[in-house]
Design a protein that fits this description.
Blueprint (H helix, E strand, L loop, with lengths): L8 H33 L10 H15 L1 H8 L10 E2 L3 H26 L2 E3 L7 H31 L2 H17 L16 H6 L9 H25 L3 H20 E3 L12 E4 L4 E3 L1 H20 L6 E2 L2
Antiparallel strand pairs: 1-6, 2-3, 4-5
Helix pairs in contact: 1-2, 1-3, 4-9, 4-10, 5-6, 5-8, 5-9, 6-8, 8-9, 8-10
């Protein structure tokens, strides 16, 4: 009797990502057409305001979230302990510590940039944007940490040592952040069923130029490594969620109030440059140094703060 070979867990993750991409690309055109129809009927013009590339990006993200649970069941995950996660007695402390460490260093970079003259006050600040930033920080940190430091890192730890698992997860974290639809203007009448795939595969057009990409990738890699160490060391996602939320909130709030004083698009590189990936990834040696200092604070916190033994989640 032939032996049935089980698909490796990591291969199942790749299948899940492909299916989520295909589903998002297929759903994007009808969602876009629905927005145009609602505007034409006078019912609402809210959805019609979004260009096709934005609709495509959101559809892929929503597809990934909707398909995550069935993908986890297919992989064979039944409880958080399968991903090396435990019930964390210091969940609140870890969350607050992550927020404080991240915000402290982001604020320090903003202060240095302002007093040195790299950054200026932005006129006409829309204070209502703070509410959107809070929601964005909460949603992005929870979703990305669940996927990357929860699911992907946990599965990598099934067959890889700690360093290799964190390195592979972090590399994937960097790559995914640079794969996004190009911000091209697609006429409403030009959208077809295949447009989602055509636009998605133009992601190389959205890549930043060489030096910016190097600094952006370096920032993402250092941040991803810190988040991986935080998740592995605490067997929990609370500390990485706090760090991630603090970085997103701090950086986007800085963007709300401050702007580069340089007329050059590259800013003041190599010291400090424009933000990449939805305005939340800093570039330059100063932000990179701040990330490294954040990692040092996390290391000291994990080493010197008393941590009760975490219990298994059943």
């Amino acid at each position: 009797m032939p032996v049935r070979r089980e698909i490796p867990a990591f291969a199942k993750i790749l299948v899940y990502l492909v299916v989520a991409f295909v589903a998002g690309a297929l759903v994007a055109p009808p969602i876009f057409w629905a927005g145009q129809a609602l505007e034409a009927s006078g019912a609402s013009d809210w959805l019609a305001k979004f260009p096709f590339h934005r609709v495509l990006s959101r559809c892929i993200q929503v597809s990934a979230l909707v398909l995550l649970v069935p993908a986890l069941l297919w992989i064979g995950l039944r409880r958080p302990s399968d991903l090396h996660l435990r019930r964390n007695p210091m969940a609140v402390a870890d969350l607050v510590a992550g927020l404080v460490f991240a915000l402290l260093l982001v604020a320090a970079v903003a202060a240095v940039g302002f007093f040195v003259g790299w950054l200026d006050w932005r006129g006409g600040v829309a204070w209502s944007g703070l509410g959107r930033i809070v929601l964005t920080a909460a949603a992005v940190s929870c979703v990305e940490e669940l996927v990357f430091r929860g699911v992907i890192l946990g599965i990598c730890l099934w067959s890889l040592p700690r360093t290799a698992a964190i390195a592979l997860t972090t590399a994937f974290f960097v790559v995914v952040h640079f794969i996004k639809p190009a911000k091209t203007d697609v006429a409403a009448e030009a959208v077809r069923w295949s447009t989602g795939f055509a636009e998605a595969f133009r992601f190389t057009e959205a890549l930043p130029p060489g030096l910016l990409m190097i600094f952006g990738a370096a920032s993402l890699f250092v941040a991803g490594w810190i988040l991986g160490i935080a998740a592995f060391s605490t067997r929990s996602l609370w500390l990485p969620i706090g760090l991630h939320a603090g970085w997103v909130f701090g950086q986007q709030t800085t963007n709300l109030f401050l702007q580069s004083s340089s007329p050059d698009a590259a800013g003041w590189l190599p010291w400090i440059g424009p933000n990449l990936v939805s305005g939340a990834v800093p570039t330059g040696l100063v932000p990179l140094a701040a990330l490294l200092l954040t990692g040092l604070l996390v290391k000291l916190y994990l080493r010197h703060v008393f941590r009760p033994v975490a219990t298994h989640v059943v």
